[in-house]
Amino acid sequence: MSGVLLVLIFPRYNFEILAWFAFLPLFLAIEAKTPQLAALSGFITGMVFYGWGLSWINNTLINYGNLPQILSFMVLGLLSAYLSFYTALFCYLIRRVCKDNQGLLFLFAPVLWTALEYIRSTHSEYGFSWLGLGYSQFQTLPVIQMAEITGVYGVSWLIMLVNVGLYLAWKSWKRGPGINTGVRFLSVTMLVLVFWLSYGSLALNRTTKVPSLTVALIQGNVEQAMKWNPVYQKVVMSKYKDLTLKAAESKPQLIVWPETATPFFYNQHQAGTQFVQDLARQAQTPILFGSPFTENAIHYNSAYLVSETGNTQGRYDKIHLVPFGEFVPFRKILFFVEKMVAMIGDFGHGNAAKLFDVAGHKAGISICYEMIFPDLMRQSVKNGAHFLVNITNDAWFGKSAASYQHRSMGALRAVENRVPIVRAANTGISGAITANGALKDETELFVEAAQITQITPRQGRLTFYSAYGDVFSWLCLLATGLLAITARRNIKGI
Fold first, then answer.
1. Do 321 and 202 fall within a single domain?
2. Residue 241 falls inside a structural domain
3. Residue of 227, 239, 318, 354 marked active site
4. Does residue 88 form part of some domain?
């Protein structure tokens, strides 16, 4: 049941209210089980949650990776099983460490969940933060404002705290030592929630300055089959030219094209390079766009900025690559996905965040998948970015929930760093996100668009999160260890 409820809190269902009690069925299911059986319950819950929530992966693998259905389901199953391991471990440790100690469970469950979510989301090139619990609240702005201190993982902690608080209150009232215990758990939970929401309301009421930067977002809606077919190269570039000149009529200070917008390798294709430079001069506006780059026989997924005078101002190479899309993890074991990779490419990765100068402001760049990694995005802001640009090609996802899930994560990146984000996607969703996490000026999926938006670049001090990163998550890791050690010593001392 918990697995179903967890799916429903994310796009496109967006029943985010369910997050606050989605774990109650799971807690009830494991309360009398051995740690091993509790782990099994957690694993099954995870398989329902991730298998359903990430089912769009099949569309990508089958329609664009050309994998047979059975192999695509194997990939989805392996990924779901890996993610479900963390849910299983959560349930195992809950029963192993806490047993029937309600007070310990109240303290342990939120920090344990947060620690595990942080580990599986952030570290190594195999980190995967998709469907992190905190992202479910992207539309509930007062809840996510604390992310400027805690990061998205703080929101996950709060959700789990409310879940375990409600569970313990219900258990105390119905089957436990009495109403007083239930009142204590519920009171602490409500006090934390009131404090959290009060902070969020105050943050939303801070005075904001008038938008001072106008950005045009070009959504070409180019089919994947057309993108790299030489026959359609002129058609694709003509489309971008028309949309760009249309956008230029609004006098933007920056025009943004999506990831791999050019059907050629910029700076390595003379005619195509000249085309983009001439267009920037004609529009009298800098153009930021995605284009592949090759060096020493290695392909890079890159972003360029061409000034209004037609000069190339800089290049950013994507740092965090997409597993099964831009490289094959565990290649020797997962040999059967080579077919997919042969079509998409086996890419090299960049080494450092890059800032572009735009109209007196500094823009931090991310490409596609990179937007889901909090620490990677904050590095640009820490280095001086006043706003963030995300260019992406979500055509791989079709009309599934993935495009909606992907853009929703941007709301947390904006709040964490208190910077606006502009996002240009080949097939959508393009749009802007304010520094408070509000989505605005969004396009529909699979339409051409020249979307004009206005943003307010960051001024003033860095947020705590931008400056210091995942301190809250590390504290949860530390608290998890200390509570587990303390509980074990207490058991031995009995």
1. no
2. yes
3. 318
4. yes
Indicate if 98 belongs to the active site. Answer: no
Please tell me whether the overall predicted TM-score, pTM, comes out greater than 0.70 for this model. Answer: yes
Q: What is the pLDDT of residues 211-242, one digit of tens each?
A: 889 999 999 999 887 888 888 999 999 999 99
User: Catalytic residue at 368?
Assistant: yes
Do residues 271 and 404 share a domain? yes
444 is known as an active-site residue: no
Q: How many domains does the chain have?
A: 2
Number of residues assigned to the chain:
494
pLDDT tier, 494 (very low <50, low <70, confident <90, very high otherwise): very low
- 269 and 328 both lie in a single domain: yes
Cα–Cα distance measured from residue 233 to residue 143, given in angstroms and rounded to the nearest whole number = 46
Pair 32, 178 in one domain:
yes
Alpha carbon 211 to its chain's center: 25
Specify the 3-state DSSP secondary structure of 254: strand
30 phi and psi angles, rounded to 5 deg: -105, -5
Measured between alpha carbons, how far is 428 from 417 in angstroms, rounded to an integer?
24
Provide the residue range defining the domain that includes 120. Answer: 2-206+470-493
Structure tokens at 30: 């494991």
What residues contact residue 54 under an 8 Å CB cut-off, 6+ apart? 76, 79, 80, 130, 131
The reply to whether 262 and 166 lie within a common domain is no
Nearest 5°: phi and psi at 261?
-70, -40
Catalytic residue among 91, 148, 171, 368: 368
Q: If pLDDT is split at 50, 70 and 90, which confidence band does 341 have?
A: very low
pLDDT of 5 > 60? The answer is: yes
User: Does 493 have pLDDT greater than 50?
Assistant: no
Contact 138, 371 (CB under 8 A): no
Q: Do 175 and 60 belong to one domain?
A: yes
pLDDT above 70 coverage of the chain, percent? 92
- C-alpha separations of 461 from 148, 377, 419 in Å: 12, 17, 11
Give bridge partners of residue 454 from the DSSP assignment.
Answer: 214
Closest CA to 431 of 405, 414, 407: 407
Positive/negative CA dihedral, 96, 100, 104, 110:
positive
CATH code of the domain covering residue 308: 3.60.110.10
Provide the 3-class DSSP secondary structure of residue 323: strand
Examine the domain organization and report whether 270 and 329 are in the same domain: yes
Catalytic option among 117, 148, 259, 370: 259
For the purposes of burial, counting CB atoms within 10 Å of the CB of 51, is it exposed (0-12), middle (13-18) or buried (19 or more)? buried
